[in-house]
Fold this sequence. Notes:
CATH architecture of the largest domain: Sandwich
Mean pLDDT: 79
Shape: elongated
Low-confidence stretches: none
Structural class: alpha+beta
Oligomer: single chain
Number of strands: 9
Helix content: 25-40%
Number of helices: 5
Strand order of the largest sheet: 1-9-8-5-6
Amino acid sequence: MFKSKKVIxxxxxxxxxxxxxxxxxxxxxTFALEDEKPMYIGEEIVREKYSITVKDYEIVxxxxxxxxxxxxxxxxxxxHRDNGVEMGDAILVHCVMNFKDKSKGFPYADFNLDSGSFxxxxxxxxxxxxxxxxxxxxxxxxxDYEITFPFAIYPILFPSGRLDExxxxxxxxxxSLNPLxxxxxxxx
Length: 188
């Protein structure tokens, strides 16, 4: 009787491991990443709801942002409400977007700045500061709009002189995760 319980336990253990392996394989098959699609500045990325072309990008210090937008100096010097850290410098990605559908709102979540060592989403505070004239609710479909995507660089991410460190990184604007579509931001 003791042997039969042990055999049943071993069989159940093997079945559990087999089931876990089956689930992992099925998940990898179902959600397998397609090939990466690297794009470059000036190339158009066409998605279902919009198309986007990155024209250029720049790395801007906080003091330069304060000079460009003196009426909003307090936004640029206050601690960020999400993490309590003072806003640092910014990477501004200048794009042309054409919207084919606006039923789901502006696709903020589609865009991330990625360097391999950090990933940052669009700063909504800076987005509205920089793109004052752009009102998503008032856009016309199939019309080009010049938009700047601001990505805040917080001092705690780059303690060794932020801008010097960021300027030497390979940075990309990730536009989609599956397939992985990104724009390599190189000025070479």
